[in-house]
Design brief:
Elements: E1 33-34, H1 43-61, E2 77-82, E3 89-90, E4 95-96, H2 98-109, E5 114-118, H3 131-136, H4 141-150, E6 154-159, H5 173-184, E7 188-191, H6 200-208, E8 213-217, E9 230-234, E10 244-245, H7 246-250, E11 255-259, H8 267-275, E12 279-282, E13 285-286, E14 289-290, H9 295-310, H10 312-315, E15 319-321, E16 332-339, E17 342-349, E18 354-362, E19 367-370, E20 378-381, E21 386-393, E22 398-404, E23 426-427, E24 442-445, E25 448-457, E26 483-492, E27 495-498, H11 504-514, H12 540-549, H13 557-565, E28 577-579, E29 584-585, E30 590-595, E31 619-623, E32 635-636, E33 640-642
Parallel strand pairs: 2-5, 2-12, 5-6, 6-7, 7-8, 8-9, 9-11, 11-12, 28-32
Antiparallel strand pairs: 1-10, 3-4, 13-14, 15-16, 16-17, 17-22, 18-21, 19-22, 20-21, 23-29, 24-27, 25-26, 27-33, 28-30, 29-30, 30-31
């Protein structure tokens, strides 16, 4: 069966709520969202059924909610951040820049309550290092965690259960995850590809510290809401009339984080989060591909966060009425949250510009005010003793209504450009390195125009920075990880290229001649391996330093491919990926193109980086890590140089 990736799958769609008095409501146990009826006349019965289901489900499970008593504070807005994001790590200085990251977060999103430090995928599988190594080998990471926490931001690591083909740890995964959490002092664990981390993992984390959060991806099983305080609400489609998130309805303190990773418009999930009193997952660099938020959506989230900060207790209150106090016309919807007998209405406009009532409710002391803008609302008394509260509310807008005599700060209404803030991945300039004489171990390649065919595995990371799955829900195999083909018309100058990779012996000669001192020497092994084997344990800076000393440069990926397809390149053993002079950056993520394949191949999961020997037309995008982690036993390099036309025969 084939699926259209641009529409929600059946599993993503909201679940209809049977309204019959004797209906079997256990069918709702596996819902993502409870669909709301379109007819307001059905809403009271719909709310009664939700209340009945909740009471029955909690009784069936013997639910107590004790786990939530151990968790302090709320975590509405979480950022999924690449550990080596250029706002978080200065690649040139080799330093983490937590304060700069937080400054950007406050400016763009109003700040974050939490951050997930994503670290290994899509790099893992490059060599035998496992998911724990990619955290453990960053010595300053505990200090990074503390810096976030000192700023009031919770920190989460991620666990990849599919990582079974790299180096094995002595203990079971549950033990290793718990040990990592203890060493780093994090606040919880995001479960990649897992809905739950029950059993041994929950037990191991509880032994480290009560209250460590487990957050599953997608729909958390009903029985696991008891010990998973948060969940990753990925690919949740709402009904036309806004529905209710099942996990939040079951446990008011449970926090879901809405996200649609490849969407360029986030208003739907922002509206659902707002009406459900939950949060969102901000994910701008999706495994190395830019899918940033537009200014309008960022402005809406900033407004939400102000109210979430001041009225968090309301958004976890037991007294929650969805689709409350509807004005009877239009697509303005509200949830009413009551804390200490004081109501708060979270309001969204899902339709066209609206100028009229937002709420029909009981008269209350004080002024009705919108906390989002600070504006006093129009109140009209009705014959039945109720009041109509409202005013202008633009299409897509949100509001938060309270009745108060306290002055409320004024803010500009959330607004901004809804278009996608595209970023180009810009290639660093290739240095000009002309040769005066051609060395014996180099070959000449004539310049000219070439029509290159480049193949690559289409993972989420794409190849040259383009998002491969724009506005899609969930691409499934064979679309996910299929082989993509690019046609690259290139014009190359005449150049020379090494027939073989640089060896450990040659690199040791460079070290002896120059006294070169690499950054992060603890991971630097160049010149220490078998003399005639390809040098490994180098990063781009190390390879460029050698090439510069030799009066050369690295070849571009296009030069490498042209020379290889002409049969001019020889591969040393063991086979290693070749670095190329193709460093790109979009200002958030750096990457380089690798060519040639390597001897190592991680088996057991499609999520691993490509390995094994590869033909010349295959390119692999390697996200660049910091702290020396880009150095690998699977990566080496060869050199190239420019040949002015007519030079060197």
């Amino acid at each position: 069966m084939s699926f259209n990736p641009y529409v929600p799958r059946p599993i993503d769609r909201p679940t209809e709520v049977p309204l019959g008095a004797h209906a079997d409501l256990t069918t709702l146990d596996e819902a993502k969202i409870f669909a709301a009826p379109d007819d307001p006349a059905d809403w009271p019965a719909w709310r009664e059924q939700l209340t009945r289901w909740r009471a029955d489900a909690r009784a069936r499970l013997g639910y107590t909610g004790d786990h939530y008593d151990e968790i302090a504070g709320d975590c509405f807005s979480v950022c999924l951040a690449w550990l080596w994001d250029e706002t978080l790590y200065d690649h040139d200085r080799g330093e983490f820049t937590v304060e700069a990251f937080l400054d950007a977060a406050r400016r763009d999103f109003g700040g974050f309550d939490g951050v997930v430090l994503w670290h290994a995928y899509p790099v893992i599988g490059l060599d035998e290092r496992n998911q724990f190594d990619w955290y453990r080998d960053v010595p300053e990471l505990p200090a990074v965690v503390r810096a976030f926490q000192d700023a009031g931001v919770r920190v989460f690591v991620d666990y990849n259960p599919w990582d079974t083909g790299t180096r094995r740890e002595p203990g079971a995964d549950a033990e290793e995850v718990a040990a990592l959490a203890a060493r780093l002092g994090v606040d919880g664990v995001f479960l990649d590809t897992l809905k739950e981390g029950a059993g041994e993992l929950r037990k191991a984390l509880d032994a480290v510290r009560p209250g460590l959060v487990l957050e599953g991806e997608s729909r958390v099983p009903l029985a696991r809401i008891a010990d998973h305080a948060m969940s990753w609400a990925q690919w949740f489609a709402d009904s036309d009339t806004p529905g209710v998130l099942r996990a939040k309805w079951f446990e008011r303190r449970h926090v879901l984080h809405h996200t649609r990773r490849w969407h360029r418009d986030h208003l739907d999930e922002l509206h659902s989060a707002w009406l459900n009193g939950c949060g969102v997952l901000v994910w701008e660099s999706v495994f190395g591909v830019w899918v940033g938020w537009n200014e309008r959506d960022r402005a809406v989230l900033r407004a939400m966060r102000r109210v979430q900060a001041s009225h968090a207790a309301w958004l976890r209150a037991e007294d929650w009425v969805p689709l409350a106090d509807h004005p009877g016309a239009g697509q303005v919807y509200a949830s009413r949250w009551t804390h200490h007998d004081q109501p708060l209405w979270t309001v969204v406009n899902r339709g066209a510009d609206h100028d009229g009532p937002w709420l029909l409710t009981e008269a209350r002391p004080g002024r009705f005010v919108d906390l989002v803008t600070g504006a006093e609302l129009t109140v009209t008394e009705l014959e039945d003793g109720r009041v109509a509260v409202g005013g202008p509310l633009p299409a897509g807008a949100i509001a938060a209504v309270v009745a108060t005599d306290t002055p409320v700060p004024r803010h500009e209404p959330p607004a901004g450009d809804p278009s996608f803030p595209a970023r180009a991945a810009v290639r660093a300039r290739t240095p000009w390195s002309p040769l005066a004489a051609l060395p014996d171990d180099m070959v000449t390649v004539d310049g000219g125009r070439h029509e290159l065919t480049v193949r690559h595995r289409v993972r989420e990371t794409g190849l040259y920075g383009e998002a491969p799955y724009v506005d899609e829900w969930k691409p499934l195999p064979p679309r996910l990880h299929h082989t993509g083909t690019l046609r690259r018309p290139v014009r190359l100058g005449r150049f020379a290229i090494d027939t073989h990779e640089v060896t450990h012996r040659e690199y040791a000669r460079f070290l002896a001649a120059t006294g070169y001192r690499p950054a992060r020497p603890e991971r630097f092994t160049a010149g220490q391996g078998p003399a005639d084997a390809p040098v490994t344990g180098v990063d781009l800076a190390d390879a460029r330093a050698y090439a510069d000393w030799a009066g050369l440069r690295l070849p571009t990926e296009d030069e490498w491919q042209v020379a290889a397809e002409a049969g001019l390149l020889v591969r040393r053993e063991p086979l290693v990926w070749n670095l190329t002079e193709s460093e790109h950056s979009d200002g958030r993520t750096r990457f380089v193109i690798l060519k040639g394949g390597c001897a190592y191949r991680a088996e057991g999961s499609d999520w691993y980086l490509d390995g094994g020997p590869q033909p010349p037309d295959v390119s692999v995008k390697l996200l660049l890590t910091g702290a020396g982690l880009a150095r690998s036993t699977s990566i080496g390099f060869r050199c190239a140089a420019d040949l002015p036309e007519g030079a060197l025969g």
